[in-house]
Task: inverse folding
């Protein structure tokens, strides 16, 4: 894959490029919207405000109306709250537990490593949508259940990734020095290993966030996610899919929202600011 | 044009990641006559490899040849296109890399790789190339010249591989050979064979050579002229005899001085009746599956005993693979012994470090060869040094900070370095930080595993001086593991020679001239001397060589 060398500019000892800056602005924008959505939406998400369904964009209804004549702008803004919030919570749980378990397995080795690895490999082999289906069938669909399901699905991946990185660090002499010093496992993973793998782990965190957004949207599209009148972006696409023949903004806008968030996160990961190591500059 | 190589006012620049341009080579002039061997010598970062590579018209990624002429055999390498240069590489100019092991393809046979040059340049038919290769193997005194080509790179030893890579370079009949530290990674006993082979083929073929090295003694054996470099500039140039006997430049003198370490003055307070600090009895350790008798399949250390007295130093010397590093790891408890006793300061130690008490761990520290991997790259120096202070001594933040300053003073590093990360330090500085961390624990015994091997001669000599000084101040004991006799000689009261996992002899430095065990004899006689005639005059007993040399 040929990478376009975007111009890099130095700032605060790091070099940035334009793509990364734009991507992070988009992400920041969605974050702010997710936080302040309840105070900025023009209409309540359940109110039917239009006489027609799949109404076009016009003054007052900036993004048109949905299949019931509800305000699309409000629904997309509130959707950001659910999509970003649920995904973020899930990715935090998944990455935290995965990375901690991965580092412990790498440092401890032996039976613990074998058992953990095989167990999580087994978890990994369950198709994610099927797993979601089973969980929803068993315990019903609620926000905590969704978060936990998504987290459990992505723990094995985060574990594998962190373990692979930590195993490499574990063979370094400074790990031997720390061990001979008599350090505890908690110190070894937190203070010796983590600082060395934090950058790839953060990149993995972003990537996993994207996967979870897409899976959440997929689950909602299948009707397994949030239940009406709440709706995340995936659910918005599904409920308005009937508007496709009419070129209704109601189906296009949430799709664009998903695309803008996931693509931005991806671009940011590829263009993270790099520390300038040339210290005399 | 009179000389084979004429380099005029060569300038090479590099661009850093902040976009800053650094001049690495600052206007170097260099002449090499036909059949002459010129050595480029200097510390790491002096630009010696960069100059050698520029003779191939090659600059490493991020570097650019920005000025000057590089005339080789009448062609200006700096001005040619990449295609034209490629035509000359392998035929006019050839390169022998530092690590032959890393430059052979492990998945094809040696002969295929040796004759590859003739195929690329269409010099001769494969059959003829094979015959020529066998002749070269003979000339380089490789064993079994007919059959060795059919082997794979992992089936021959390091010294043989280095000679095979010379054969690869020679097959295109070059006029100029570039050797990039070809013997640095080899044991002294092997180094001799390789040097002898190089010297004879170069002389027989009348080939000119550039020999890059930081080891003055090795260079003295093979080079006609020596060029001393520092900071990308030529400091001094002259014939080998001139440089060795009448060096003008201070840096050259420093290099020469570093080669002859000051003899260690005998301990005044060495009362023989003191209790031993460390005693090891019949320790055996190794790798692989454990057999019925409780011993491992492959024994790296075989029933070794040793004694270290308080305030005195023990040197352990031997070639690579003799088990000396495993011995260090066994003592430190990193690699638990399979059998034997370790008694430290009058108390029996557990074999595994995990079972030893915190005080026992604190009193015995180990310092590793590669400071790069022994220091956590993600932490500033301050954190690295203050961790043992917090862990063993429970000092609070302020006391710790003061102590870090003291420790940095002790290892003669500027205090401002405490905010840097290991990647921002030089090799010698890293090794000092590595040592400061061991000192921070307040140990009685420090095990030094090849700590100067990755350092330049001058820097290594400074580190050794530092160790001696610290010993006077703090009353430490060292176990000093090395393959470099001159280093061990400089600092140790007793020297133990190891071969094949066993202790073959223990002697004192003043009796170095008269070792009794045959392996020690071979080892000690193989250490290069500054005398340029040493290699030619060296006579080794053939039965010793066949018994212990890995040819």
Result:
């Amino acid at each position: 894959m040929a990478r376009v060398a975007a111009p890099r500019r130095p700032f605060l000892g790091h070099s940035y490029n334009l793509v990364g800056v734009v991507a992070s602005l988009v992400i920041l924008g969605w974050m702010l919207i997710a936080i302040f959505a309840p105070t900025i939406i023009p209409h309540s998400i359940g109110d039917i405000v239009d006489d027609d369904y799949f109404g076009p964009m016009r003054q007052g209804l900036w993004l048109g109306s949905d299949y019931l004549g509800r305000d699309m702008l409000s629904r997309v803004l509130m959707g950001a709250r659910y999509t970003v919030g649920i995904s973020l919570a899930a990715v935090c749980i998944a990455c935290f537990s995965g990375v901690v378990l991965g580092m412990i397995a790498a440092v401890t080795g032996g039976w613990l490593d074998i058992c953990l690895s095989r167990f999580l490999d087994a978890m990994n082999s369950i198709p994610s949508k099927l797993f979601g289906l089973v969980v929803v069938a068993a315990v019903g669909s609620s926000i905590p259940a969704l978060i936990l399901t998504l987290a459990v699905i992505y723990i094995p991946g985060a574990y594998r990734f962190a373990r692979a990185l930590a195993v490499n660090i574990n063979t370094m002499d400074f790990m031997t020095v720390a061990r001979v010093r008599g350090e505890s496992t908690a110190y070894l993973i937190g203070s010796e290993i983590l600082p060395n793998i934090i950058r790839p782990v953060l990149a993995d965190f972003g990537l996993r966030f994207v996967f979870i957004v897409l899976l959440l949207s997929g689950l909602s599209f299948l009707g397994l996610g949030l239940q009406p009148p709440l709706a995340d972006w995936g659910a918005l696409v599904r409920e308005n899919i009937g508007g496709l023949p009419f070129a209704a903004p109601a189906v296009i806008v949430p799709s664009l929202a998903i695309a803008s968030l996931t693509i931005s996160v991806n671009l940011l990961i590829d263009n993270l600011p790099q520390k300038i190591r040339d210290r005399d500059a | 044009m009179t000389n084979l190589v004429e380099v005029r006012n060569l300038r090479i620049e590099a661009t850093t990641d902040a976009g800053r341009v650094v001049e690495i080579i600052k206007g170097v002039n260099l002449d090499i006559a036909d059949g002459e061997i010129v050595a480029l010598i200097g510390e790491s970062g002096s630009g010696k490899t960069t100059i050698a590579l520029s003779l191939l018209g090659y600059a490493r990624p991020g570097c650019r040849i920005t000025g000057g002429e590089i005339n080789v055999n009448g062609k200006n390498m700096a001005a040619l296109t990449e295609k034209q240069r490629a035509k000359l590489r392998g035929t006019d100019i050839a390169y022998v890399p530092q690590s032959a092991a890393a430059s052979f393809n492990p998945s094809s046979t040696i002969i295929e790789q040796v004759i590859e040059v003739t195929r690329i340049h269409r010099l001769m038919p494969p059959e003829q190339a094979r015959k020529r290769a066998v002749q070269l193997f003979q000339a380089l005194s490789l064993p079994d010249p007919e059959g060795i080509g059919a082997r794979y790179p992992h089936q021959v030893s390091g010294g043989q591989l280095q000679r095979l890579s010379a054969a690869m370079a020679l097959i295109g009949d070059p006029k100029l050979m570039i050797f990039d530290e070809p013997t640095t990674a080899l044991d002294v006993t092997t180094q001799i064979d390789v040097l002898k082979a190089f010297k004879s083929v170069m002389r027989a073929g009348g080939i000119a050579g550039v020999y890059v090295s930081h080891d003055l003694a090795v260079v003295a054996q093979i080079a006609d002229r020596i060029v001393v470099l520092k900071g990308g500039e030529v400091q001094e140039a002259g014939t080998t005899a001139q440089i060795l006997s009448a060096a003008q430049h201070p840096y050259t003198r420093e290099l020469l001085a570093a080669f002859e370490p000051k003899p260690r003055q005998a301990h005044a307070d060495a009362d023989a009746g003191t209790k031993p600090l460390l005693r090891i009895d019949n320790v055996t350790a190794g790798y692989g599956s454990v057999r019925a008798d409780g011993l491992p399949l492959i024994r790296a250390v075989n029933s070794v005993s040793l004694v270290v007295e308080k305030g005195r130093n023990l040197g352990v010397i031997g070639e690579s693979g003799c088990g000396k590093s495993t011995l260090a790891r066994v003592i430190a408890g990193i690699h638990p012994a399979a059998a034997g006793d370790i008694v430290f300061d009058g108390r029996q130690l557990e074999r595994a470090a995990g079972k030893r008490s915190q005080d026992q761990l604190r009193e015995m520290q180990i310092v590793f060869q590669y400071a790069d991997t022994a220091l956590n790259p993600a932490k500033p120096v301050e954190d690295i040094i203050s961790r043992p202070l917090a862990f063993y001594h429970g000092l609070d933040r302020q006391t710790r900070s003061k102590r870090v300053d003291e420790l940095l003073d002790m290892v003669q590093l500027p205090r401002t370095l405490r905010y840097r990360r290991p990647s921002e330090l030089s090799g010698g500085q890293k090794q000092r930080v590595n040592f400061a961390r061991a000192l921070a624990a307040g140990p009685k015994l420090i095990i030094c595993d090849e700590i100067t091997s990755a350092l330049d001669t001058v820097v290594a000599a400074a580190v050794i001086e530092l160790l001696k000084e610290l010993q006077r101040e703090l009353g430490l004991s060292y176990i000093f593991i090395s393959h470099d006799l001159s280093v061990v000689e400089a600092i140790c009261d007793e020297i133990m020679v190891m071969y094949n996992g066993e202790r073959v002899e223990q002697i004192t430095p003043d009796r170095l001239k008269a070792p009794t065990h045959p392996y020690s004899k071979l080892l000690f006689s193989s250490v290069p001397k500054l005398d340029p005639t040493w290699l030619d005059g060296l006579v080794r007993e053939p039965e010793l060589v066949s018994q212990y040399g890995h040819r």
Summary: The beta strands of chain A are 8-11, 14-17, 274-275.
